[in-house]
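Work Package 3 committed the consortium to producing structural models of liganded targets before the mid-term review. Because experimental data for this complex are still outstanding, the team generated a predictive model from sequence and the ligand definition alone, so that downstream docking and mutagenesis planning could proceed in parallel. The input record is reproduced below exactly as it was submitted to the modelling pipeline, together with the SMILES string for zinc ion.
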Amino acid sequence: MKKRTRAIRNTVFALLCCTAAVTAGQSAFVPPIVSHADTQSDLENKIKEADEKLKELDQKIAEAGTNIESNKEIQDTYWDKLVTTQNKIDLVNLSVADKEQEIVDKEAEIAAVELRISDTEERIADKEVQIEMLDRQNKENINRFGQIMHAMYITDSDDYLSIIAGSADFYDIFVRSEIMKSVNEQNLNFMHQLLADIDRLEEDQRGLEEDKKNLEYDKITLESEKDELIDQKIALDEEKKYYNDLNSSYWDEYNTYSVKIKDLETRQANLQYEKKVTQADREKAERELEEEIRRAQERAKNNTVYDTGEWAWPVSPSYTLITTYFGYDSWRGGNHGGIDIGNSGMMGANIYASKGGEVIVAKTTYIPGYDYGMYVVIDHGNGYQTLYAHCSAIYVSVGQVVNKGDCIAAVGSTGWSTGAHLHFEVRKDGGRIDPFSVVSIPQ
Ligand SMILES: [Zn+2]
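The resulting structure, written out as tokens with the ligand in place, is given here.
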């Protein structure tokens, strides 16, 4: 039962620890082995920070992109609304034009009627003049007739004459009377004619007055029709104004979104520029790091004398459980650069130098959850180096010469590791080789 639990835990180790050594597809990049540990760690941190920043920038760029998309979608809905209202405005404009034409037509009709009215008024005035003329002539006749009467029948009443002169009906009475028989036939005919003329003119005048009344009635009807058209036009103008206002508010919204989108696009472009700069910084740091490594290896090669003895097991011979071997590891789909020795209860156990040499890395600073954590690299000369990672304590310092079997550090779980174990690497001429090609599990 206990064994089984351990096996499961070891599987977890195999999956999660030492990912720093897993650099599938990036085999050219070998983690740092330098004597100038600070420069190297600064550069590593720079690269790490750049990576984090790049991740953040990518996220922000994507967010800006999503934002742009959603703003564009909203803007599209305003465009649709603009098209709809513009169609309405076009229709209303047509109606307004129609209505204006109708009003112009109506005004022309009214003008025609007014012309006929003034025409009729002129004719009425003419009739009045004629009637007045005849009237005057008639009065003269009556007057003259009265004088004749007076001469023929001497009366003593002046009132009688004034009655004759004042009344048109007088003729009717008079014409039928006995007295008229002796009146000159020519005079009488003339008077009849005069009376008939007056009657006819008055008849004409009445007819014209009737016409005028009808025309005025027509005019009133037309005016009220025109008023109605004007009301309709006002309503249409109001409708037009409503849609114009709506349209301009939609334009405002549309333009607001244009500004927003432009701002976002500018922001996105700035972020992309920042990304480019960060990438350039990262590449520069990486180049510097490579150069640093190269120089360190150069120094190591020149300084260290090769220890020709056998290789020692880097921990107590009682710890021999290999949780991950060197090479391709299907669990993580990448290469594992060393071996993991992961018996339970290893926390704090001694780590021994596998061979004599010079300590070229003794790293005690690290970012939790990343890479090797605390680790030591020893240069053994002749192109060989060993690396001991995820330590909980380090007992040596850079430049220190150690012998095979010296205790250099304590087993831990720092860096990318989920439990105490030793990640042990052997390097030859800058590349990682299978540790089992030089060291064997103690029997
Ligand atoms: Zn490992």
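Reviewers should note the following from the model. The chain has five helices and 13 strands. These observations will guide the Year 2 experiments.
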